[in-house]
Amino acid sequence: MYVGVDCGTQSTKVVVIDIENGRILGESSRPHHLIEGANGRREQDPEEWMSAFFGAFTDAVTNAGIDPGTIRAIGVSGQQHGLVALDANGQPVHPAKLWCDTETAKHNAALVEQLGGEAGCLSKLGLVLQTGYTASKLAWLREERPDAYRRIDSILLPHDYLNFRLTGERVAEAGDASGTGYFDTRTRQWRNDVFSIIAPELNPEQVLPRLIGSRDAAGTVLPAMAKQLGLGPGVLVSSGGGDNMMGAIGTGNIQPGRITLSLGTSGTVYAFSRQPVLSDNAMVANFCDSSDGWLPLICTMNVTSASTLVRNLFGLDLGTFSECVAAAPPGAEGITILPFFNGERVPMLPHASASFLGLTSLNTTQANLCRAVVESATFGLRYGFELLGDLARDAHQIRLIGGGARSAVWRQIVADVLGVEVICPHITEAAALGAAIQAAWCDQHSQGEESSLASLCERLVSLDQDTLTRPDPATTATYQGIYQRYRTALQQRHGVSPAEPAQPQTRSTT
Ligand SMILES: Nc1ncnc2c1ncn2[C@@H]1O[C@H](COP(=O)(O)OP(=O)(O)O)[C@@H](O)[C@H]1O
Ligand SMILES: O=C(CO)[C@@H](O)[C@H](O)COP(=O)(O)O
């Protein structure tokens, strides 16, 4: 048995898988609480991730009806970019600043300048620093919380921190490390010189975790932790990775030509590449993946976070919300939402706030507002999808994951807006599944077995044909004009270039 853990923004999920029979035996999740403040602050207490992990692990094992002593290895996936700075006792010196924290926008702008602008970032890191990456959070801590900064003994990402709590080891792997902003994504190595520009008082050799390969083990579960979880001795913890890298594994996106789109708190679209991808657009992040390839990715910040906000305004449950979205016509009778409730990464608008446009006494209905917020999050993803250029243009099918993918009406909107058919894997907790698959890969490797990640994915990732959703050519054509309205609003409110979007041709495998 293998366990996959995904520490997302809103919750930690745990899945137990049986690789022999290729199925999930049990799963569970526990929510996290967000510390929000003025100026875009978004933080979490790492201890809460651990409590959520314990709760979800216990429930998932109970649901699976297995003896935890039969678990061979655990893999951990985590929200990317969060800064977990620890003191010499392994205690956080400050709550973790998350990927969606925009309080550090000015620190990020200053760092980009110090590194020589976009060209300097590309040449040193293989990508352009963005607000949200770990680098500016460290710069912020140094400037705004000097007492906490002085106590830093090590720096981890969220999934590295869970690995540390499980094994006592401070390690990192290339996929998640790519999103720090002090890691060269082409050579897969820390950039100590860049780190020293951000944090000159800290020694990168001491504070940065040791890099390990994607198939390597972070360590074995500590005896006290094993006792608490009911595990046997020597349970391996694989390297783990960022949730998008684990989502790539959990959707079988470890070969060229596949595209995964996640409708989580964030929205992400990514494709596998065997080589580093140097995009001509700074918003495309040339991340490494966690299978020794690369994962060019775009990330928008307001997806289910935005839909949840509007849903809560009306006090709707998820089912009623979906009914409302379905009840309104494409374009929500003229309402356009720019859903940047907490700034945005793609397009690069860290200081933006949301706008509701085109409201009249006739169209301001619950249904139209619900539809407009889902459409707006999807338009943001179309904007990002187009930035992926050839990688996206050739896509005939998109693998859809994340909480929003559970909604049939949202699946149809994604297919219609992008003009590409979409399908969900049977196991939609793809990041947790990917982590469990990686754990099995790592375990087999440690036993000297010549296993391949691709064969494990083939066995464990299957697509749910009931969710296959083809674009409707007439609706795709209608959305062309509505998307143009969104782009015009983007230009008028935020000065984002109104470049004519590519005309989507409906694409599907049949
Ligand atoms: N049927 C649905 N329709 C719309 N949103 C949904 C649906 N099911 C779940 N969600 C939303 O998905 C979100 C959780 O998605 P998830 O991918 O688990 O997020 P994260 O990994 O960022 O914590 C929640 O905001 C939840 O409201
Ligand atoms: O910042 C990014 C990717 O660059 C986000 O995708 C985070 O990794 C958070 O993921 P979710 O919690 O939305 O799954």
From TrEMBL:
Keyword Transferase listed: yes
EC numbers on record: 2.7.1.17
Residue span, Carbohydrate kinase FGGY C-terminal domain: 261-441
Active site: D243 (proton acceptor)
Residues at the site labelled Important for activity: D6
Keyword Methyltransferase in record: no
Keywords: ATP-binding, Carbohydrate metabolism, Kinase, Nucleotide-binding, Transferase, Xylose metabolism
A Pfam family reported for this protein in Swiss-Prot or TrEMBL: FGGY_N
Catalytic class of the enzyme: transferase
Reaction equations catalysed: D-xylulose + ATP = D-xylulose 5-phosphate + ADP + H(+)
Molecular function terms from GO: D-xylulokinase activity
Domain of life (superkingdom): Bacteria
Residues covered by the Carbohydrate kinase FGGY N-terminal domain: 1-250
Amino-acid positions noted as binding substrate in the UniProt annotation, renumbered to this chain: Q80, H81
PANTHER family: SUGAR KINASE, XYLULOSE KINASE
Family under the similarity heading: Belongs to the FGGY kinase family.
Function: Catalyzes the phosphorylation of D-xylulose to D-xylulose 5-phosphate.
Name under which the protein is recorded: Xylulose kinase
